[in-house]
Automatic annotation (TrEMBL), chain A:
Family membership noted in the UniProt record: Belongs to the eukaryotic-type primase large subunit family.
Organism, scientific name: Kwoniella heveanensis BCC8398
Cofactor: [4Fe-4S] cluster
InterPro entries associated with the record: DNA_primase_C, DNA_primase_lsu_euk, DNA_primase_lsu_euk/arc
Binding positions for [4Fe-4S] cluster per the UniProt entry: 314, 393, 410, 454
Keywords: 4Fe-4S, DNA replication, DNA-binding, Iron, Iron-sulfur, Metal-binding, Primosome
Gene3D superfamilies xrefs: 1.20.930.80
CDD domains in the cross-refs: PriL_PriS_Eukaryotic
Protein name in UniProt: DNA primase large subunit
Function, as annotated: DNA primase is the polymerase that synthesizes small RNA primers for the Okazaki fragments made during discontinuous DNA replication.
SUPFAM superfamilies: PriB N-terminal domain-like (SSF140914)
TrEMBL record, chain B:
CC annotations in GO: alpha DNA polymerase:primase complex
Residue spans of biased composition, Polar residues class: 425-434
Keyword Transcription listed: yes
InterPro entries reported in the protein's UniProt record: DNA_primase_S (IPR002755), DNA_primase_ssu_euk/arc (IPR014052), TPR_rpt (IPR019734)
Placement of TPR repeats on the sequence: 43-76
Any one biological process term the GO annotation gives: DNA replication, synthesis of primer
Source organism of the structure: Kwoniella heveanensis BCC8398
Biased composition (Basic and acidic residues): 413-424
UniProt cross-references to Gene3D superfamilies, sorted A to Z: DNA primase, PRIM domain
The protein, known as: DNA primase
CDD domains: AE_Prim_S
Leader sequence residues: none
GO molecular function: DNA-directed RNA polymerase activity; metal ion binding
Similarity section: Belongs to the eukaryotic-type primase small subunit family.
């Protein structure tokens, strides 16, 4: 994980108009402990029109951005999974509550200002990271709009109304006489609602292209280029305004970014954020689930069994290759070796494992000379003694692209569609060749959402409900997480059986 | 009379040298006298003889464009969007730097989409009779685009064989992004579903029992007459057993209504479509008193039938993306030799595709003039007399010029307003980063 070098002083002439955030080592603890909205953040919702002009620490700069990035990429992967809308909403809500909480004014025992400051700074930092290409901008806007929508819908009614008033939209209100003129047409767009509803409703008149979603679904009356939007569909207007303003602002930022004369401590952070969003995952290193617990250690003998039950497709592929050819190329060894370390294969077992896999194709002498070193190296026992973490999906997807003889990489990305289908249906009997599920997986692959495809495979092979992913809707972002979750599920099942047996026994006893 | 073959390069070359109306064509795309980005950053794609396809051509001036057209002598060419840079420079640009920006909003209606409901022709053929469908489509689409969406500068162009294109040059139409284009299309699109789907009209919400959207209600009113004229009388859509079974499959399956109708029609297969529609109407009318909900159901279904048989079947993909290429007006259709001429939407019902000038006829007319007109050189009036002025292409070019003049006028006043705005706001124009 990237750690910015914390050089002490900034040039005091902060000629940095893009981000009026003075990076400062001092911890800013504004209004610590106080509750209730302050004048800076009167509302929970935010259109992010004013850049934050307060001091933040370098660490906050990064952590706030990463927190938000996590939420955004989670939203993105959720939105590609065609969940029913209520399920999507609750999935987003539970995830944001955990990673980026934002409470309403009435919330107690919460530091509102701190939450809102976090939210705001995260947003502005990510703007810098995502303004660079049209593609990044579009994805950023989509996720931000989804997040805003989610918050908007869950916001307190009165606070929301106050917030909207504060934005001072110049929507033209349709007056009573015009309303009567088009009463017939307006009513027929309300789809079977009562006359009372019509009387109580009021309309805004806006150029139709500001609400393309409402026009596309024929939910509004359109005349002479103006769409008549009822109050009840106001959210479309708000979201449209939010996204178009954000889009303009991002384009402007992109234009001016080169002129930023950027502080070299921020640049790498920003680069890193953008690249980890591209692979669809918030950047995180894999932390092995506490090796001591639950007897999760694996011996060389157990690998074969674990592979059959718990390996994600990429590792499954490498392992099958190794078993068949008694050999793997360098990056394949690295990818599989680090992964095995991650699932709890200790160094001496790893040496046994690899020795056994190479089998008779290699003399002991050669193995000891050429291969043992690398294994020890990857366990941090040689060279600079760095304990390398297992590779994440992001790294597998983007680094060291496999050459013609290589078998490492991500099957979803690096296999041809035909081979992928064959591979999946051979490795996972639950996946049938021409099933609708397979088609769904291939569709995700086609749209380059590899982690979505992989997550779906996990769900299907583990009898997990669609959208659950690795638990609470998390998608596969690391091969080891797949295996951990898979083994955890197995343990749960075993425990259940055991409990059942116990209770059966007791019944027998009675 | 010489028999000019439209597939011969010499014929096409003569057409491009002498007949293609470059000046109005340039002004139409450029919307200004001086070459602007709308022209210089615009993509042109040429189809050469032997199906060689050259994309990403762009030109600095109208003259350069003409020279290249004459040199390449394409069998047809297409117009794309204005890009963020000159398309011809694309190889020197950074990846992703060539983005489509502005483009006329376009629509394409093609007769092939009507094959299941036309009885006179099929496939590539088209006759005066099937044009009735196109005429109905143009009427409805023209109305919707003008009244609902408020556009003014619509150019309808015969595609040379069996379809029609519409180009909208309003400023607000040029500026639409792909999402917005998609919204217009889904708003206007009513006929959906493939071959395996009988009922292709679902415009009444989830339960298929809502009111029609006002815009569709207007369309329905416009289409009722066409339905009677074209589908019932001319095409006799429900004449054959296949035809009336198709009709019955679109209606609610109430045995007491459908049963008698079917046996009635089977025993009397000679009943015309109009008579059958009448039978249906009277059967449904009987329901009004005692079974009002069922009556409404049938009434709605019959409205949907009218829509399914007459509502414009637009080729949605053409309109959705700015970078979709569409054949230029005044091209020659390589198969028929007919020129893609503008069509007046108010007179679209009288339009006969068979009377559209072909490149052969036009060249013959030119030959005649040259023979007769050796002493006609003293025409030296104000305006240079173009060759096409002396052929039957003239009225079409004039129609085009009139359209272009209106577009230019609007663009001028829009720019003047924008300019005024700019000078007003120039006080704080220094760039600000957010």
């Amino acid at each position: 994980m990237f750690r910015p070098s914390t050089r002490q002083n900034l040039p005091s002439s902060s000629s940095n108009p893009a981000l009026e955030v003075k990076v400062n080592k001092r911890h800013s603890g504004i209004g610590a402990g106080s509750s209730g909205p302050s004048s800076r953040y009167p509302y929970r919702l935010n259109f992010y029109e004013r850049p934050p002009t307060l001091d933040i620490t370098l660490e906050e700069f990064e952590t706030f951005a990463i927190a938000r990035l996590r939420v955004l990429s989670h939203i993105e992967s959720l939105s590609h999974r065609s969940l029913p809308y209520p399920q999507l909403v609750s999935a987003i809500q539970s995830y944001t509550k955990q990673h980026l909480p934002l409470s309403s004014n009435t919330a107690r025992a919460v530091n509102l200002d701190e939450e809102r400051r976090r939210d705001e700074i995260g947003h502005w930092v990510l703007r810098l990271a995502f303004c660079r290409s049209p593609d990044l901008r579009a994805r950023f806007i989509r996720s931000e709009v989804a997040l805003f929508k989610n918050r908007f819908e869950s916001d307190d009614v009165h606070e929301r109304a106050a917030f909207l008033r504060s934005l001072e939209f110049d929507w033209q209100v349709v007056n009573e006489s015009e309303k009567q003129t088009y009463a017939e047409q307006l009513k027929s767009c309300m789809w079977g609602q009562k006359d009372d509803a019509f009387k109580a409703e009021s309309w805004f008149k806006v150029p139709w292209y500001t609400v393309p979603d409402l026009v596309g679904s024929r939910r509004v009356y359109v005349r002479a280029g103006m769409a008549y939007v009822p109050q009840s569909l106001q959210i479309s207007l708000v979201l449209q305004a939010f996204s178009s303003r954000l889009e303009k602002a991002l384009e402007l930022t992109a234009k001016n970014l080169p002129r930023l004369d950027e502080d070299e401590r921020l640049g790498p952070v920003i680069d890193h954020l953008a690249s980890s969003f591209l692979s669809g995952i918030g950047a995180t290193d894999y932390q092995p689930a506490d090796g001591s617990g639950n007897g999760s250690a694996v011996t060389a003998e157990m690998v074969d069994d674990v592979a059959r039950k718990h390996f994600p497709p990429c590792m499954r592929n490498l392992y099958e290759r190794l078993k068949r050819d008694h050999h793997l190329k360098h990056f394949g060894r690295l990818q599989l070796g680090l992964f095995l370390k991650g699932i709890g294969l200790p160094l001496d077992e790893a040496i046994v494992f690899w020795r056994r896999m190479y089998g008779s194709t290699m003399s002991d002498d050669k193995f000891n000379k050429e291969y043992k070193y690398n294994i020890r190296h990857s366990y941090g026992q040689e060279g600079k003694r760095a304990n390398y973490p297992p590779k994440s999906c992001q790294q597998i997807l983007t680094q060291n692209q496999p050459g013609t003889q290589d078998s490492h990489g991500c099957p979803f990305r690096h296999f041809s569609p035909d081979n992928l289908i064959t591979f999946l249906s051979n490795s996972y009997p639950q996946l049938e060749r021409s099933s609708p599920e397979m088609k769904e997986i291939m569709d995700s692959v086609k749209s380059t959402h590899y982690h979505v495809a992989c997550t779906r495979v996990f769900e299907l092979t583990h009898g997990v409900k669609k959208g659950e992913g690795l638990g609470e809707g998390e998608s596969v972002g690391h091969p080891n997480k797949w295996t951990d979750r898979s083994r955890e599920l197995e343990r749960d099942v075993l425990e259940k059986i055991k409990k059942k047996e116990d209770s059966d026994e007791m019944q027998v006893d009675v | 009379m010489v028999d000019y073959d439209p597939s011969s390069p010499q014929v096409m070359n003569a057409f491009y040298r002498r007949l293609f109306p470059y000046r109005p064509f340039f002004l139409w795309l450029n919307q200004d006298q001086i070459p602007a980005k709308l022209f210089t950053h615009r993509e042109f794609a040429f189809t050469l003889v032997g199906d060689v396809y050259i994309r990403y051509n762009s030109f600095h001036t109208a003259d350069e464009f003409k020279k290249e057209v004459v040199r390449l002598n394409p069998s047809r060419f297409e117009i794309g969007p204005q890009y963020s840079a000159r398309p011809r420079d694309r190889k020197t640009l950074a990846a992703g730097a060539l983005q489509p920006q502005r483009r006329e909003l376009v629509f394409d209606i093609d007769m092939t989409d009507y094959d299941e409901i036309r009885t006179c022709c099929n496939d590539k053929k088209i006759c005066r009779r099937c044009w009735g469908y196109i005429a109905a489509a143009v009427k409805v689409l023209d109305h919707a685009l003008r009244e609902t969406f408020g556009y003014k500068h619509l150019l309808w162009v015969y595609s040379g064989r069996r379809g029609i294109h519409c180009w909208i040059s309003d400023q607000s139409a040029l500026d639409l992004n792909d999402d917005q284009r998609k919204a217009v299309v889904t708003f206007l699109e009513v006929i959906k579903g493939g071959k395996e789907q009988a009922k292709k009209v679902h415009v009444r919400g989830g339960k298929d029992d809502g009111d029609l959207h006002p815009a569709l209600a207007e369309a329905l009113e416009l289409l009722k007459k066409n339905f009677v004229d074209v589908c019932l009388h001319d095409q006799d859509c429900f004449g054959s057993e296949r035809g009336w079974e198709a009709l019955l499959s679109l209606l609610p399956g109430d045995r007491d209504v459908i049963g008698p109708l079917r046996s009635n029609w089977q025993s009397e297969p000679g009943r015309s479509s109009a008579e059958k529609w009448g039978d249906l109407m009277s059967a449904v009318r009987k329901l009004k008193k005692n079974q009002f909900p069922l009556f409404r159901k049938y009434e709605r279904a019959m409205e949907d039938v009218i829509l399914q048989y007459t509502y414009p079947r637009i080729d949605a993909e053409v309109s959705k993306h700015r970078n979709h290429l569409l054949k230029a007006p005044f091209c020659v259709h390589p198969g028929t030799g007919r020129v893609c001429v503008p069509v007046n939407p108010d007179l679209v019902e009288q339009f006969d595709p068979d009377t559209v000038p072909t490149v052969g006829e036009l060249l013959n007319q030119l030959d005649k003039i040259q023979v007769e007109g050796t002493n006609g050189e003293s025409v030296g009036g104000q305006r240079k007399v173009e060759d096409y002025d002396q052929t039957s292409l003239k009225p079409y070019v004039e129609m085009f010029e009139k359209h272009v003049a209106a577009v230019l006028k609007d663009n001028r006043s829009a720019r003047r307003a924008a300019h005024a705005d700019e000078t007003r706001s120039s006080t704080w124009s220094s760039p600000q980063i957010y």
